[in-house]
Amino acid sequence: MPAVLEFHDIIKEYRGFFRRRTVRALDHFTLQVEQGEIFGFLGPNGAGKTTAIHLAMGFVRPTRGSGRMLGQRFGNADARRKVGFLAENVALYHRPAETLVRFYGALNGLTGETLTRRTREALKTVGLSHESGRNVAKFSRGMLQRIGLAQAIVHDPDLLILDEPTSALDPLARYAVREMLLDWRNRGKTIFLSSHLLSEVELICDRIAVLNRGRLVRTGRPAELLESREEVEVVARGISVTSFPSAEVEPENRIRILVRANEQRSTIERIWSLGGEIVSVSLRKRSLEDLFLELTSGASPRDFTKIPTAPSSPEAI
Amino acid sequence: MKHFRPIWMIALNFVREQRWPILVLQLWVLGLAALGLLTDFQREREDILLMFKQLGMYGVAFSVFFGGSAIYNERRSRRILAVLGKAVTRRDYLSGLLLGVMLAACLFCFVLGFTGSWILGGIGFSVLHIWYLMLCVLAACMLASSVALFYSTHLNPWMSALLTGLTLSVPGVIAMKFGGAWGYILPVYSLMRVFLKASFEDSRMLGGWAIAVAMGETVFLWLAASWVFGKIDVAVAVD
What we know:
With 317 residues, chain A is an alpha/beta fold. Chain A has ten helices and 14 strands. Helices cover 32% and strands 27% of the residues of chain A. A six-stranded mixed β-sheet of chain A has the order 6-7-8-3-9-10, sandwiched between helices. A four-stranded antiparallel β-sheet of chain A has the order 2-1-4-5. Chain A has a four-stranded antiparallel β-sheet with strand order 12-13-11-14, with helices on one face. In chain A, strand 4 and strand 5 form a beta hairpin. In chain A, helix 4 packs antiparallel against helix 5. The two termini of chain B are 36 Å apart. In chain B, helix 2 packs parallel to helix 5, helix 5 runs antiparallel to helix 6 and helix 5 runs antiparallel to helix 9. With 239 residues, chain B is mainly alpha-helical. Chain B has one domain. Chain B has nine helices and no strands. Chains A and B meet through helix 1, helix 2, helix 3 and helix 5 of A and helix 1 and helix 4 of B.
């Protein structure tokens, strides 16, 4: 089965006026999204995620390389008829919610009874049926994001491309969107999801890709990526922290040592040989956040102070 | 039909988004017409004709303003992304904007023609000539807005307006100096000359060729603008 979304060796450079300054947003970017999966697209700010999405939608053109969406070259309007797109920081016309969703549905070729029915269904799905007559100019940011989602799904697309769809939503609405995405996946739809909410991505995505400085640094199933390097946390007492330079000092004269699973036995034996006592040994599975930080900054979460650049700071993530 | 519906919807949306400046322009024309009722028509008929001509010039200026800022406003507000994220080609989008500017110009010309027929027609100006002049103004508005729209595909509104002014005035100045074929190049000057030279005494419908040329060049500029707009990155700021 052909990929639903395919980026092939794409380079995208933004050139300044008179081409004096060039910024490379994507660097030999290759990625395939298969049908029926929820694909999480991660990366720090400025990594090139939005550029990749804009390339797929045809808003920007690649400097080099090519790509296809639903079998058509990027930028093909007929392919977009089957795509639902929600931009980051959604910007919509100021008019009543129902009129607005109808407008976007009609742009995608819906007419008459189908347009009316689909508009109402979309508003119901995002929980805005009761606000259908209210002008979106008066909506909160979370409601705007929901109406943005409604215009993305109004034409029942086969592929949903969502750039930060839940960033402004409260936990309840976020849960509802998550359920909606899972339901869509179960109906055979494909979802390409860019998000900073790592816990959410970990929960629902079938595959993820991590982008850093325009380069794809890792792609795979979350379980595979997170289990690839299991670590063990050993807490001991009665030994000096100088014996294990990477250890952390804890209260009650304890130290906490993080070691790879295959180093567990030798570490315990070393503690015993130094006269120490083991308090606990527990498996420490990496979180997606750990993986993300490692891939995008080369540091562990505990090394925040060592991270030199702004995009990799915890605030940015 | 597949393309016409989104074009028509984008055009109507443009008119809706620009409803306040459009409304103010119509009210300005209607207000001046109402003010004209208080004057002695026969004694001040040359002044009334001059005011009518001034309003026609405003129409062209507003067309440049609308054409030059349409894409920029949409890109700056990022609303363009939700529209171009649908099954809308860049050419459809641009066509919709141009049609929207033309709808606004049509509305303006209709209101100006209506009030002109009412007031100028009442003091001896040929009503048929007034509507012919409106056709000249409408053709000039279409051409001027298509030049502005062409520049606005890749420039900000100020640069777009400046270059539109230069582009329209240079052939006009040369045509004024040397005449001949220069008058065929972007004949906004030729069309507005017909409009500005109109008088109570002379009701000849001159410059019909300029209307045809203006329409042809509008189509050419629309195609050129579509080609340029199809090549640029719309998700990048134009400042």
